[in-house]
Amino acid sequence: MIDCIRFRLDFFEHLSRLEDDEGKIEIFIPNFCIDETRKIKDAKLALQLLKNTRISMIDIERCGSIDNSILCYAKEHDYAVATNDKKFLDELKKEHVRAVRIKQRKYFDVY
Q1: Exposed site from 41, 62, 84, 105, fewest CB < 10 Å?
Q2: pTM
């Protein structure tokens, strides 16, 4: 969501387009990501958007780093992970976990 704000992308419009291709999507944000998000400069608007959406916070048990915790949870529940972090995207691909990212600062891409 923060990158959508930075790149001036309508998160919900692109989510709707993605749902047209992929089917209904449920969005969950790990509890510890909210704390991390508060530290990011452009996060205030993203946190406000979270309060007024169908996005739910879930409790995920930490198993090492934040990325590793998300990866473990995604693998266990067969979830896709949304991120623009190149290193994390490479790890997700290596572990055969589907990912959603913003491509060319214009649209969501699933792989």
Answers
A1: 41
A2: 0.80
